[in-house]
Known about the structure:
The longest helix has 26 residues, at 232-257. This protein is mainly alpha-helical. Helix 12 (294-310) crosses helix 13 (314-333). It has helices at residues 31-48, 68-83, 88-99, 113-119, 123-146, 152-165, 178-192, 199-211, 216-228, 232-257, 276-286, 294-310, 314-333, 346-349, 352-367; strands at 2-7, 374-379. Strands 1-2 form a two-stranded antiparallel ribbon.
Amino acid sequence: MDVVGLATPPPVSTGAPLWLAMPSRFAGLSRSQARWALGLLVLLLGATLLALAVPAPAGAPEGGTGEVQTDVALYDSIVSAIRGGGDYYGVAAKELRRGGYPLQPFITFRLPALAVLQAHLPPMATQAVLFALIAGTAGAWFVRFRAAFVRKPPLVFAMLLLAGGMVVFIQRGLIGFHEIWAGMLIALSLALRRNDRWTTAVAIGLIAMLIRETALVYVAIMGILAFAEGHRREALGWGATILVLAVVLGFHAHAVADVVRPTDPVSPGWMGLLGFGFFVKTMMLSTALAVVPAVLAALLVGLALFGWACWADPVALRVLTVFCGYAALLGLFGRPDTFYWGLMIAPLLLVGLAFAPDGLRDLVARARDRRRIIVTRLVR
């Protein structure tokens, strides 16, 4: 009697991880899935080149801070006036008018928390707090990365990439810039968040929103992901911080209404619709990529995003989703003079390059998998 059997060879091993302690997220893909993923990677890299068509902000200095310098002068003058006994909202309105800035709608006024804090602290103390925040964020991510890499060289490389994302944040002249503080707080919150320990991350997220309300994008994403993963209490925690922000914004709007005149200029709006290329451009200007040739810098942004998709860790999914959220924010609502919104997520971007080698190797190995079904005939 003939017996015919069909057997599928076991999956082809991609080998031991190159840098990571565990296989990348793509190590278990089928051949067709890996080929689709490689195709999407090529599309992503091609899309990053759209940044070459986005003009740099006028007068952008080397180091990629552009119009930030003008805004920093505004924030410094507000802090100085508060130190002289002025009320935040009255002072802010006066300085906005003097600088020719719009005063309507109310969100053209920054929330007062950072300016008031700076006004009541010596400049050296404020600088020390910022440097402590930067050091604490780097230390928290070092703990996360130490478990991700098997050897010291890739760990050192990851930390150097983290430093490359923070290069703008250590400039003393930008200490009054709200995105500097909020961006570092978001990075710290992400590093500290774990399934069994999320309260500190939630609290830090709230502080980030009270400094810069656009941190709401980060908090909303974290709440949605917590709910989707079944962490109901954590989701409620993130939601509670959004309610706190809503109350604060209500009081903020009322205070702004008391100092704004009907004749004050109105903002032209934020529907820039500059697309994905603008997001890539902001990342190039907000990190060490500002000194890299534009074509290479744009491609590295794409590889960094791909790298974060490679790391099979819950925090990587959150980081990547936050990048996507701010990419949408910048692509839809950003204007050339608001590119500094990218500072909200800049610290972590380049670290993705440390995860990319394992992911790329696994994708190529899976895509080249030439396994065939084996037909076996047994004769009895």
